[in-house]
Structure formats: structure tokens, C-alpha cells
Amino acid sequence: MQRCFSVLLLAFLTGVFACEGESVRMVGKVSVPGPAELETGFLNPPDEAKPRTWFHAMSANMSKEGLTKDLESMAEVGIGGLLLFNVSQGIPVGDVVYNSDRHHQMIAHAAAESERLGLSFGVHNCDGWSSSGGPWVKPEESMKMLVWSEKLVQGEGGKGGEEKEVKGVKLGLPTKRENYYEDIAVVAYPSLGSEFEDEQRKPVVSASDPTFDVELVADGRLDAEARLGEKKASAPWLEFRYEHPARIRSASAVFTDRHVTVMLQTSSDEGRTWKDERELLKVRTGKGEWAVNDHFDFIESRYFRLQFSESVELREATLSRTYLVENPLGRIAMARTENSDFGDIGTPPPGMIIDPDKVLDLSEYMNEDGVLTYDFPPGNWTVLRFGQTSTGAFNNPASWEGRGLEVDKMSRQAFKTHYDAFIRKVVDNSSPVAPNALQYVEIDSYEAGGQNWTTGFDSIFRARKGYDLIRFLPLVAGRFMGTSASSVKGAAAGAKLVGEQGASEAVLHDFREVITDLITENYFAYFTELCHADGLKTYVEPYGFGPLNDLDIGGTCDLPMGEFWMNREMTMVESAVSAAHIYGKPVVSAESFTSTPQINWRGNPAMAKLSGDRAWARGINEFMFHRFAHQANPNVTPGMTMNRWGFHFDRTQTWWYNAGKDWFRYIARGSYLLRQGHPVADLMIFVGDGKPNSRFKWDDFDPAIPKWLNYDNVNADVLINRAGLADGAITLPEGGHYPLLALKNCDHLSLPTLRRLVEIAESGVTVIGDRPKALMGYGHTKKDYAAFTELAERLAAHLHPASDWEAHLANHDLTPDLRAAGNDSLIYEHRRVGATDIYFLVNESSSPDTLLLDLRVRGKRPERWNPLTGAITPIRRYAATATGTRIHLALEGEESAFLVFRDDLPMMAPLAIEQWDKSELRVLGYRPIDEPWKVIFRKFGRYPNTNSTAFPRQQTLTYGHQAGFSHAVDFPELTDWKERPEEAIKYYSGTANYRTEFDFHPTSNATYHLDLGEVDIVAEVKLNGRNLGVQWMKPFRLDVTDALREGNNVLKIAVTNLWSNRLIGEERYPKQDGGYQMDGYHPRKKMPAWYVNNEPLPLGPRTTFTTADFYDADDELLPSGLKGPVRIIALQELPLAPAAAPKKD
Q: Which residues form a coiled coil (predicted)?
């Protein structure tokens, strides 16, 4: 069945994309520019290479005037496009209702302005950022889950052959969410002894809070909840007191509080003291729902407690004598658990395995009122009533008008309804005014939780897997089940081809596989199909806490998108990167620079650059900024925020038009290089057949994969249907060549996958991993098992341990692609463009470093391409080696480098190796610029009357690139603005212009650098009227040789700081914002009328307005301004000896 899904996915990827017009990017089409074209594209990147941004319209606050100003600012600074989100989180509500006619007029206006300005334009597929839902989704079209009720009955049928009236049994209604429930099946089986005990010997349940309704959490339903403990209370508990000692083997609880943990405790002295037994396994089942559901060898006591770490909103809590499967919610796709993270399913005690052949399907015997009328054989019977209900997941964080149930991810019909309700309207309304503007639609974060049913799922399952799921439904309730002879295809009567525990594992895998495949096909792939029919491309973040196969999903969209946060480990980029690489997609996007409230208005390009460089080195080549907040009222600054979330990537930022513009050009140049040609890596990691699955990384192996060994994760679909084999390597159509394949999550494999792995191993590819243990899934024949055994033996003959990664490469006569002597933590990206090789690497340390690099490139001239300046500089500190090229490279702290090897240029004589550590420049001397400075401060807003007389009261000032009021202040020496006595300067935010004059007498044999010393945060330098550019990264140093002149010189430096000091200063004064107040996750409060009407901030002491407060009046001010020391450094170029020419034979 793996082959079936793979073929379907391949057909989608080739068929759908091939039939679309020019407006849809062709997946797999890889650009291969020539060397001259590559250089031109680097110096002047095309619009496609420019960074993009998410564009958040917050809480129905939108205006055409604000949209125009926002988009014009994007175009001016070099942003290439935007994706419009409507999000409601904390910000009071404006007057543009989601999906209303006025809302679509706003979207059409944004589309038209984007087309006018040359910006690409797209929208998120629903209100909020997760995932796909709205008020048009009916409960029967929403995400669904299996629910059940249990009842024990005593059978008396068949006694003496006498006829008798059979009494009906009322079966409890399972959980009913969103007023929706449909029955699926009623099954019964001979009761387990533990189930009978649980029914007959129930505990007395009490709570730490005597007013808590313990009956509510013991009714087997999840559609109501109650809070246990006061909000601030610690360690509330539920107590279970049994009349006699009970052997408890499982415990569960369902709640809505994210940070709660649950400890199982026992008491041996009638509840006077308590002993911690185990912290229960916690899983996430939805956007706002968590659960503990754990099993263990029995714990015997009369007194048990579930102790919660804090106050908790409880929906259900139970203890049971029945031993359940390990992580039952994960195994039934209601809680995200990687297949490779499942523990052993467990070893149930004797008598706790249900025989499927004894399971009765009694569905036809229950009437519409839930009354079951059936003459049970003698004995105790457990009856399970199964049905489907909504998971209750809503799109978030959305406005009340745009909020609704998440659409069924397994139903094409349901998703079509969703698509037509909003996206279709966007297409229809924007096309007449801007026919070429709308280009993209996105599915962002998948935060909707689990789904494990859709209407007709049992029939779909039978069609795909060949056996009846209904008799195995007790597995969903966590019970163990054995094999069914009648369910095994082609086996002799009574055959038991899977072990008793293995049957449970096998069926549950099949269950998850059908779920994950349906979500890939009917949600993500169908989304792209619908968008392509409208000439649109798709962005998808192919991961999240749900039953997802990341690589399969990434293969269905045009633009896989990862995610990275400022100053955090990059754990959410690899699925998107690998999916793009293995499916031949040249652009790998990322939600970029997402940040916590601690970053706030402190964020700036220098702070962010290292995070972006790290993402580049991991394969990302398009930044989609998180986030640009739409400034619906353009008369206030800094203005709108996305609640408290950043990065504050806004046109109202002080650095937007100087450092921002420079940084965006840097990004465009680097992104252009990193999407040319194809990626180079030596290793593929196969993620296995077990589902759900995502990706593996360096430290998932023992020993860990070295950082110098680049890899891509790969799925079965690509291995079987897309990859080729040549010269002892796995190959991809775009040029990828992988001599190594590592196996993970491969204890259980399907026959098609195993056959392909044998082909790969026998072709000469080095395959690293362990022998597969079992055939994946249930219902196989004896012939299947024999084939598995034979293939597994063939594969085992070619398997290698993960003991020596370098030796594995050496087996293919290869050395590491790039390795730094003494620095095995260096990460890099390598692209090959025809005969040109491009390497990108980054010094992640804040200290300078000198690297000695060995690269697997021969006979090509090395150059350094600098995306900050556009400079292309030949590298002279290099030498040819037996295996490639050795380069000596000096990097400043947090500096990165593009190394480009071209074979169309004449080779330059390298420096002799003994010269590599010597500088090519000698310092001749320093000339301090300690003359007095005149500093002109320019500011936006109305400044209050304070003790300072630096600025007149209520004087209108301007900042940045706008003309306006200016006030000159003498700085006899350079000092930090925050140390100045004038409050107007101490709390100043914006740009100030420094000016000084000095005498200088340059000599003809020297080079001169201007060193600005310490700058916070941006400096734009002009010397003698010549603009020398913007400096925003340490060291603040630039070549001024050509700008210096004999005698008098005029130096002007425009220095920009951050908003923080101004906002801290504002906190000293009362607010004048008309009662503005934030309003929780789903706001209902209205935005003040002055803001909605695009009026200025009401008069008062404050000059700024922002929708989220990050500062207090007593917060420490941030360093600001030009602090120096400023000096001119005289340098002399030193001739260094070239390497000796190779001797002739």
C-alpha cells in the first residue's frame, strides 16, 4: 500500500504541475545561469530574490491609506512581496469585518497597489495563522475524532433453548462536541477480567477542592470541563480510594492547561502521607487541549492520587486496572508522536488481549435512541459504542467574524467548501482590479491537533488495506488485540502470522498510515491543486502537532516553508529544506526572525543577521519576515504591533530606510546565490515507513553525524519514484548525488520500500543502519513474510554501522566536502551551478576567527563574494591539495562568507603558505578625530514641556528621511545619548546628524580607513560630500582613501538609535490614547475611534503610540549614538610572496 500512495503522490506532482500555465512556477525547474549571468544576478538581484514579509492586519484595523503607505515603503527599501494575514490577538477591534465586502475591497486595494509597485502579493487561506477554518465550516465538515462509550453487560442467551424476550440495553452517548455526533459502530467482546473489576469495584473519588464536581470528570465524556483549584493554587489533586487494594495499570486525564504536569501518587497509611510513583506521559491533542495517558506494570494500593502541578481545567480523569497500549492517544493519531518516538507498545498480562474473531459487530442491533437489543451468549461482555464528533478545533487567532471550526483535513469536499468561502472570493474580487497581482496562498502553522476519522473512513480503510477495521476498533480504546485468521489475506484457516502484541502494533500503524496519507492527499495536495487551477502558487509549513508526514506534505506545495526564531536553535527548518531538495524545488522559504516579547522594539538588522546567516547555512534561501504590522492609522508611531510578538519588522522602525534597506539588499544577493543550481550533499537519511514522520538530524545518530557532512532527509516516495542510481550513488533529476544512505525508523518496512533499499544497497550505495525486524502493517500472506525475510537478509549483507562517517566517504574515494581544521562545528551550504561551486559559511562566534578550510573542489579559482558590498575579490590564500583546495579565511565575529569557485577565469598565483598568517596591510599610524561635533537631532512628534529647553514645547519635529525641524547641540566629545543631561536627548529615538571638520594630509602610498568605534545602532557616513554608505555591523570601519582630501575635510555621520529610549521616556507621563486597552486572545473591545478614523494621537504629554507596552519608566536606557573613538587608520599595502610555481618534470 506504500507503493499505492507513492504513485498517487508522484502523479499529483508531475501531472498537476505540468498542465498549468506560465503563471504557476514549474516544480523541479532549476536555474543554471552561466558565470557572467551569475555575477550580474548577484550584483543586481532580480525581484524574485528579494525577501518577502508576512503582512499582518490586526483585529479588523485596515485602511486604504495605510495599505498604500505600507506597500510603498516595502517597495522603496527592497522588499519583494507580501503575504496578507488577518490576525486577532490582543489588539482591540477595528471596523473592517473579515470576509465582508469591505474587507475584500481592502484586499483588492492591496493587490492593485502591489501590482503598481511591482510587489508579489498573496493571502493566508483563513483568518488567523492556524490552520484552515472559518464560520462556513459546519460541524459535519470539521475535523473529526473517534469517540466511544463503554458498558458491561451480562449475557444469558442460549440457555435451555427456550425463547425469551430480550431486553434492550441503553448505551451511553459518547462525547458530542459542537452539537454534532454520528454513530459508526457498536462492537462487543468477552470482557477482560480487569474491566469487570473496574466496573464492580469502583473507587470513591474526592478532590482537594470540596466544591469540585468529581462526577463530571468520571463520565467518560470530553465535552465539559471544570476547574480544579484556584487559579493561583499549587498542587490540586483528585483522590481515588478503593475499598480493597487495587492493582492499577493505567491512568489518564484530559485538561486545557498547557503547563500542567501530573504525578501519580499512592498512600500506604490511609492518606496521611503520599509517595510519588511516576510523572505521567503528557501529550498535546489540540490547540488548547493536553492529556496524560500512561500505562505501567501494576501499582497496588488502596489510595491513589493524581496530583496536578497547578490549577487545572479538567475534562476527564480515570484510573484503570486494564493495561493499555503505550501512548494510546499518539498511536491513534490524536496526539503528535513521531513513529520513531513510540516506546515499546507493551506486554499485557495474560488475559488482557482481545481475540478479534470473538468481536461482535452489533451495529444493526442498536436503534436511533442508543438502545441495543441483542441476546448475548453467557458471560460478561464489554460493549463499545463508537461514533464520530468534531474535534472542536478552531482556526486561531482569528476574529469572531472569521473564527470557526477547522475543516476536515481528510475530505476534499469539505476543503473545497472552505476554499470557495474565502480564497475564491479573494480571486474573484482582486482579478478585475489587479489581474496579475495575486500570486500565492498559504497554509501556515499546523496547530489544529489530532484528527483520526472522516465520514466513510472505515470503507476507505478497507479499500486501502484489504481488511475490516471495525472489529479492531477496541484498539482505539487502548486495548490489546491479537490476530484474526479471517482477516489475514491468503493464509490458511487459523493462521497466526503476526504475534499477539504485533497485531496491535500492525493494525495501529495501518490506521495511522491511512490517516496521514489522506491528510497529505485531500488537504495539502488538494490545496495546491485548487490554487493551480486559479493560477496561484502555494506556501506550506509542512509540519506541526498533528498526524503529518512532513516530507510528503512538503512535496505537494510549490514553496515549502520552514521557521526560525531569533536567537534560538533552528529546529523547524529541516523538513522544508529536505522536502525542497528531494522534490527539486529551488526556493526554500522560512518564516523568519520570529521573536518573543523580550526582543520587541530592540530588534534591528545587526541583532538579526546571525540568525539569518544560520538559516542560510541550513538551506533556507528565502526570508519571509515575521512580521510587518499593517499601520492602519499612518498618523502615529511606532504604531501597530502584532500584539507582543516580533520581529518588529515595520516601516515605522527608526532603521527602516537606512540599515533596513542595506540589510534587505544583502539578503537579496545572498538568496539569489543560494537558489541557483542544486544543493550538494553526500548523505540521505531515510525517515522510514512508520507514520507520522518528519526528519532526523545530526544528533539522532550514535555517533552523531559530523557537521561537515551535509545531508537531506528522504521519504519512500522519492526513493521509489523519483531517485535514480548511478556510480554508486542515489541521484536526483536536478543533479543531487548521494553516495551514503542512513536508515532511521526502519525496524518495520513495507515490501516495496524494502525492495528499493535492496536495489540501492546492491548498486554500491553505502547503506548505514540496522536490519529491518518486521513487515510493516497487518493482513499479509505467508508469501509476503517469506519475501520480507529473503529481502531483509539481502539488505543486511550490505549494511554498515554508523561508526565512522569519514570512512564511509572514503569508501567512495571522497573526502569531506568542506571541513575546518580544529572546528568541526562549522556548518555550511554548498550549491553547484553548472561548473561553478558556491559555498556559504558563517562564524557563529562573536569573536574573530581564522579558518583553515579544506574543500572538495579542484582546478577552479576561488573568490569571495560579499553580499554586503557587492565586492567580488579573488582569494590569494589558497593552495591545491591532493583532494581539493585549501583556503585560509579570516572572519570577524558573526561574519559570514560566500566562497565561489569558477573555472572560466584565469588562475591567480596564490600566496606562499608561509605567508598566509601575515597581513597584507601594515598600520602606519592613527589620526584621532577629536574635534568638537555639532549634532542635529530630528524627531517625529510633539515633545512635552520638561525641564529641558532643548526643544520647544509642542514643536512639530521630523525624523529619518523627512525634512523638518532640526536643533543643533554641541558635543565637545562623543558621549552616549543616554548619559546626556538633556532629557530630550536622553530619551531621544530617531536619527541625529553629526558634523565635524578636520585637517588631514594624506600620502600617496597609503590606504585610509575610517574607524567609527562604537555605534548604536546605525551610521551613514559622508566625507566631503561623498556618500560612503551605511554601517550597521561591527566593526564600523570603511575605506575612505578616495574621499579624503588634502587640508580641510568635512565629515558627516547620520546616526540612528532604537525606539526603546523614547518609549521608556514616554512611560513617565499619563496616557492620552482615548482608553486604549488590550483584550486577551480573542478581543471584543473596540479600538478607540480616533485610531479607526485615522486621526492623530489626542493631545497630551506623549508623542508616541504603540499597541503593546514593553517598557516601564524605570527601565534602563539602551546605549545610543556615536560613541567612538573615531579615528583614521593609515595602512600600507605589503607585497607578499606568491607560491612557487610547480616544478616541471
A: none
Residue 1023 β-bridge partners: 1026, 1051
Q: Mind giving me the DSSP string for 172-235?
A: PP---BTTB-EEEEEEEEEPPHHHHHHHHSPPEEEESSTTS-TTGGGSS--S--EEES-TT-B-
d(CA 359, CA 372): 16
Least reliable range by pLDDT among 912-916, 1073-1077, 1090-1094: 912-916
E strand segments, 641-728? 678-679, 683-686, 711-714, 724-726
Q: Burial, 64: exposed, middle or buried (Cβ in 10 Å; 0-12, 13-18, 19+)? A: middle
Contact 84/403 with Cβ under 8 angstroms? no
Stretch among 162-176, 210-224, 880-894 having the lowest mean pLDDT:
162-176
Average pLDDT over residues 439-459: 98
Phi/psi for 660 (5° steps) reads -60, -50
* Amino acid, res. 100: S
User: Measuring CA to CA, how many Å separate 246 from each of 197, 304, 324, 478, 880?
Assistant: 9, 10, 16, 20, 75
Q: What angle do CA 665, 668, 669 make, to 5 degrees?
A: 90
| DSSP string across 42-88 | HHS--GGGS-EEEEEEETT---HHHHHHHHHHHHHHT--EEEEEEE-
E strand or H helix that includes residue 1066: helix 1060-1066
Q: Which amino acid is at 758?
A: V
Contact indicator for 557, 524 with CB cutoff of 8 Å: yes
With beta carbons less than 8 A apart as the criterion, state whether 106 and 357 touch.
no
**Which residues are within 8 A (CB) of 594 and not within 5 positions of it... i.e. 6 or more apart?**
563, 564, 565, 566, 626, 627, 645, 646, 647
C-beta separation of 415 from 443 below 8 A: no
Pairing of β 1047-1056 and β 991-1000 = antiparallel
Instruction: Give me the residue label for grid cell 554501522.
Output: 801
- For residues 748 and 512, the answer to whether their CB atoms sit within 8 Å is no
Adjacent-strand bridge partners of 993: 936, 1054
What average pLDDT score do residues 776-802 get?
Answer: 96
Number of Cβ within a 10 Å radius of residue 1001: 9
Residue 966 binned pLDDT confidence (cut-offs 50, 70, 90): low
Q: Is 630 helix (H, G, I), strand (E, B) or coil?
A: coil
What SS3 state is found at 38?
Answer: helix
Helix (H, G, I), strand (E, B) or coil at 1125: coil
User: How far is CA 959 from its chain centroid?
Assistant: 36
Q: What is the pLDDT of residues 675-700, one digit of tens each?
A: 999 999 999 999 999 999 999 999 99
For residues 678 and 904, what is the distance between their CA atoms, to the nearest angstrom?
19
Q: Please choose, from the candidates 427, 432, 433, 428, the residue with its C-alpha nearest in 3D space to the C-alpha of residue 116.
A: 433
User: Whole-model pTM?
Assistant: 0.93
pLDDT score of 1019 more than 70: yes
CA dist 831 and 736 (Å) reads 10
Query: Which amino acid is present at 730?
Result: I
CA 133 to chain centre: 20
328, 354, 409: which is closest to 141 by C-alpha?
409
Element (H, E) at 667: helix 661-674
**Residue 836 CB-density burial (10 A; 0-12 exposed, 13-18 middle, 19+ buried):** buried
How far apart CA 548 and CA 974 sit, in angstroms, is 57
Structural contact between residues 427 and 213, judged by C-beta atoms closer than 8 angstroms: no
Burial label for 50, CB within 10 Å (0-12, 13-18, 19+), is buried
Are 111 and 430 contacting, i.e. CB atoms less than 8 angstroms apart? yes
Nearest to 782 by CA among 495, 1058, 534: 495
Task: Give the model's pLDDT for residue 496.
Answer: 39
Q: What is the pLDDT of residue 501?
A: 61
- Phi and psi at 705, nearest 5°, equal -65, 130
